[in-house]
């Protein structure tokens, strides 16, 4: 590990000396500074509870509050943390039904894929969309308030999306795992 750190430092020095990067420019840091044990602990704590108070987070990972805040800000700036979000109780908000919808397109050209993806992004009931391999081109997670809503979504929205050849839906009976993430380990980070 020490040899790698020395090699990275030498690379940085060469790039600064030849003017490729400016020392004041912090954008290069994430390319050369690997995550250490404390960064990994911080990321694992934040993925479990994104609202944890800085004082509690610092205590959990063994840092002072100011050092903890500095590191979290660096992780955010380097895009290791994309955003913080709340997990809402959807049935309590009236979204009592969830469907997994498999979409097959008539053609798979870049133009067809882009048109479909643009259109799907504009439908608020579609909460997730994945380009996949296999029989279906896309798998969507769609939320609905009831059976009339599902019928409307199927006949007026999903089948009308650009390039759709086939729509196949399955009701979600029960959610087993949602929003989970595997633990982050040292070798995971690039």
Task: Provide a descriptive summary of the structure in words.
- With 190 residues, the protein is of the alpha+beta class.
- It folds into two domains: 84 residues, Winged helix-like DNA-binding domain superfamily/Winged helix DNA-binding domain (Arc Repressor Mutant, subunit A, Orthogonal Bundle); 81 residues, Lrp/AsnC effector binding domain/regulation of amino acid metabolism (RAM) domain (Alpha-Beta Plaits, 2-Layer Sandwich).
- It contains seven helices and four strands; from the N terminus they run αααααβαββαβ.
- It is extended and about 60 Å long.
- Number-wise, the strands total 4
Task: Tally the helices.
Answer: 7
SSE arrangement, N to C:
HHHHHEHEEHE
Task: Give the CATH class of the largest domain.
Answer: Mainly Alpha
Q: Uncertain spans, ≥5 residues at pLDDT below 50?
A: none
Which labels suit this protein?
Alpha-Beta Plaits, 2 domains, alpha+beta, extended, 7 helices, 190 residues, Arc Repressor Mutant, subunit A, four-stranded antiparallel sheet
Brief overview:
By secondary structure, the protein is of the alpha+beta class. It contains 7 helices and 4 strands.
Helix and strand topology:
Elements: H1 2-17, H2 29-32, H3 37-48, H4 54-61, H5 65-77, E1 97-105, H6 110-121, E2 126-131, E3 138-144, H7 147-157, E4 164-171
Helix pairs in contact: 4-5
């Amino acid at each position: 590990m020490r040899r790698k750190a020395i090699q990275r430092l030498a690379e940085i020095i060469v790039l600064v000396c030849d003017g490729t990067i400016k020392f004041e420019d912090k954008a290069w840091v994430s390319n050369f500074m690997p995550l250490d044990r404390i960064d990994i602990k911080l990321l694992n704590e934040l993925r479990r509870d994104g609202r944890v108070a800085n004082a509690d987070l610092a205590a959990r990972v063994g840092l002072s509050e100011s050092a903890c805040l500095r590191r979290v800000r660096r992780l955010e700036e380097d895009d290791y943390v994309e955003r913080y979000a709340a997990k809402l109780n959807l049935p309590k908000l009236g979204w009592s039904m969830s469907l997994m919808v498999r979409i097959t397109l008539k053609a798979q050209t870049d133009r067809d894929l882009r048109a479909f993806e643009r259109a799907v992004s504009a439908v608020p009931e579609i909460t997730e969309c994945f380009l996949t391999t296999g029989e279906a081109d896309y798998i969507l997670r769609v939320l609905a308030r009831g059976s009339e809503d599902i019928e409307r979504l199927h006949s007026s929205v999903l089948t009308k999306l650009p390039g759709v050849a086939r729509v196949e839906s399955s009701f979600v009976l029960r959610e087993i795992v949602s929003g989970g993430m595997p633990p982050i380990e040292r070798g995971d980070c690039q």
